[in-house]
Amino acid sequence: MSINFPLISVNGVLGAAISPLDRGFAYGDGVFETCRYSQGSIPLWIYHRERLLHSATRLKIQLDENLLTQYLDFMLAYLHDAAIAQAVIKITVTRGVGGRGYRLPDNAVPTYCIGIFPGSELRTDNYRAGVSVRICDLRLACSEHLAGMKHLNRLEHILARAEWQDEFAEGLLLDTYGKVIEATVSNVFVITNNQLFTPDLSSAGVAGVMRRIMLEKLAPAAELISRTVDMELDFLLAADEIFLCNSVYGIWPVNLLVDDRQSMITSQYSFSGHKITHTLQQHLAQLLDE
Question: pTM of the entire structure?
Answer without folding.
Answer: 0.94
